[in-house]
């Protein structure tokens, strides 16, 4: 950019107009200010720093995060199949090489967060690591009845043949600087996983928590109340979210946690109570869902 400006200073104005036109076409995209949570899933968002070595590389409606280090990077989530090339382009636009991504992680195995993983695995050569319940879904490109949204087609996605497992509580490391810890938070999907790590800017370090979706929604056939063990694991995951180290909360749907407003300085980025409140909302949502199933009657 600086070079282009210097050239402009040295050249005739008409040449500058052409250069400016070209750079306008290449300029970072923008997202609609009035978008709802359901908008912009496939649309390229401007890539940007969240804090320290944590970067937003996702779409306007779906989060993807790049956590960087001199010894290699970690990418979390792949959004939709259509958004995956935008994520790759965003990584490059920030000046990073996709081939330096060592691990690709996932929040949960639905098409809007895992549909782009196959493309991104090919683009990076990274190892995809997900919790055990998500492995078969990713390898097949298709979930099963254990997923509340199975009949809605939410688990249909391009297969990731070599997806490998990560255990609850396991910390994945890249070089000496990156350490990301997996936390089992199933319920919205069986393989639901939240991730935590620490990012620093100079002496200031913050705990980043990427918490998975917690909405208790399903296709017409699935009843949460028919699966008490699944509900118990759902509740344990919500308890886990409450206790995560959590200065900065990020979630798979950026508007759910007002992420862009927070990055623009229109709301606080740091909020130590955010994970606790996020879990409370999840609990209230689950209780409401179980109540409505009870009211509908037990077959
Ligand atoms: Zn989902
Ligand atoms: Zn989603």
- SSE-based structural type: alpha/beta
Mean pLDDT: 92
Q: How much of the polypeptide forms β-strand, as a percent range?
A: 15-25%
Number of helices: 9
Would you list the SSEs in sequence order as H and E?
A: HHEEEEHEHHEHEEEEEHEHH
CATH superfamily: Ribonuclease Z/Hydroxyacylglutathione hydrolase-like
Radius of gyration, in Å, reads 20 Å
Q: Can you tell me the CATH topology?
A: Metallo-beta-lactamase, Chain A
Which blocks of ≥5 consecutive residues have pLDDT under 50? Answer: 1-25
Architecture, CATH level 2? 4-Layer Sandwich
Shape: globular
Helix content: 25-40%
CATH class equals Alpha Beta
User: How many structural domains are formed by the residues?
Assistant: 1
In whole angstroms, the N-to-C terminal distance is 65 Å
How many DSSP E strands? 12
Major sheet: size, sense and barrel closure? 7 strands, mixed
């Amino acid at each position: 950019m600086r070079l282009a400006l210097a050239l402009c200073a040295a050249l005739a104005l008409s040449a500058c107009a052409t250069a400016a036109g070209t750079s306008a076409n290449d300029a970072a995209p923008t997202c609609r200010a009035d978008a709802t949570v359901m908008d912009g899933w496939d649309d390229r968002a401007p890539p940007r720093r969240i804090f320290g070595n944590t970067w937003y590389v996702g779409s306007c409606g779906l989060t993807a995060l790049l956590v960087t280090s001199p010894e290699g990077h970690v990418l979390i989530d792949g959004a939709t199949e259509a958004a995956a090339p935008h994520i790759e382009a965003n990584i490059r636009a920030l000046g990073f090489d996709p081939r330096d991504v060592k691990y690709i992680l996932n929040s949960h195995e639905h098409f809007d967060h895992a549909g782009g993983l196959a493309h991104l695995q090919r683009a990076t050569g990274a190892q995809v690591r997900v919790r055990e319940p998500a492995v078969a879904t990713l390898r097949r490109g298709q979930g099963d009845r254990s997923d509340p949204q199975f009949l809605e087609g939410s688990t249909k996605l391009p297969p990731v043949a070599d997806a490998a497992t990560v255990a609850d509580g396991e910390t994945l490391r890249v070089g000496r600087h990156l350490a990301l810890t997996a936390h089992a938070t199933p319920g919205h999907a069986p393989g639901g996983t939240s991730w935590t790590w620490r990012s620093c800017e100079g002496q200031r370090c913050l705990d980043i928590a990427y918490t998975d979706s917690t909405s208790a929604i399903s296709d017409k056939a699935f009843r949460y109340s028919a699966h008490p063990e699944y509900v118990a694991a759902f509740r344990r995951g919500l308890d886990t979210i409450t206790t995560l180290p959590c200065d900065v909360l990020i979630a798979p749907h950026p508007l759910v946690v007002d992420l862009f407003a927070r990055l623009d300085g229109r709301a606080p980025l740091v909020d130590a109570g955010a994970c606790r409140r996020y879990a409370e909302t999840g609990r209230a949502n689950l209780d409401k869902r179980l109540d409505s199933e009870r009211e509908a009657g037990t077959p």
